[in-house]
Amino acid sequence: MLKAVILLRRRAGVSPDEFAMHFRVHMRPLIGSLPGVSRIVVSDAIAGPGGTPAYDGMAEFWFESIEAVQRLVESAEAREIEARLADFVDMDTYETFLTVEHEVAVDPMPRTPTQA
Description:
Largest sheet: 4 strands, antiparallel
Number of helices: 4
Low-confidence stretches: none
Number of strands: 4
CATH topology: Alpha-Beta Plaits
Mean pLDDT: 89
Order of helices and strands: EHHEEHHE
CATH class: Alpha Beta
Number of domains: 1
Structural class: alpha+beta
Shape: flat
């Protein structure tokens, strides 16, 4: 399974609330119509112990194959989304990369360390 990760920073003059409205509401119908995508998750960044996050949001897109990624990249729907992103995203800081996930299982039963 392949995953595209997209990191988004809001454009200057766009408030966090405006960014969230564009990102989660206005873009939703367009994102839902993308060809070749198996799963989509959008995430809002929040301030953590380290302070203000470097990005305002993240989108993740899962694909069954590299051909499905190519189908998306070449689609009119993807071009429409990119054009709309410029309304609220700083396109100079737009980051995207393709990954292969490796799930790491977490043992739900804590164990007592053994003595050496």
